[in-house]
Amino acid sequence: MNLPPSQIVPVLADKGTFIASESSFYRVLHENDQQHHRGKSQACKRKKPKGFTATGPNQVWTWDITYLPSLIKGVFFIFI
């Protein structure tokens, strides 16, 4: 079979066999340099995020979405 560890572990579990956890499979594959991207699509290329330097007010903005619990269901808080 040519399956990823995320599918090997459940198949073996259905047969009543336990060899190792999914993370152990991935660790062994990585240690033996056998963990590579498969398929037609290319692996994601990690890019370093752009750095921004503000030289004056209102040049660099950011945001954050945080859900705050409340006592009333369906009520959301907006803080600006």
Explain what this protein looks like in three dimensions.
The protein is mostly helical. The chain has a domain at 1-36. 25% of the residues lie in helices and 0% in strands. The chain contains 2 helices and no strands. Helix 1 (5-14) crosses helix 2.
Cα-based radius of gyration, to the nearest Å: 23 Å
What does the average pLDDT come to?
A: 85
Q: Encode the helix/strand succession as letters.
A: HH
Strand content: under 5%
Largest sheet: none
Q: How widely separated are the two ends?
A: 55 Å
Poorly predicted tracts of residues: none
Shape: flat
Give me the secondary-structure category.
Answer: mainly alpha
Structure summary, number of beta strands: 0
DSSP helical segment count: 2
> In which range does the helix fraction lie?
25-40%
Summarize the structure.
This protein has 80 residues and is mostly helical. The chain contains 2 helices and no strands.
Helix/strand layout:
Elements: H1 5-14, H2 22-31
Labels describing this entry:
80 residues; mainly alpha; 25% helix
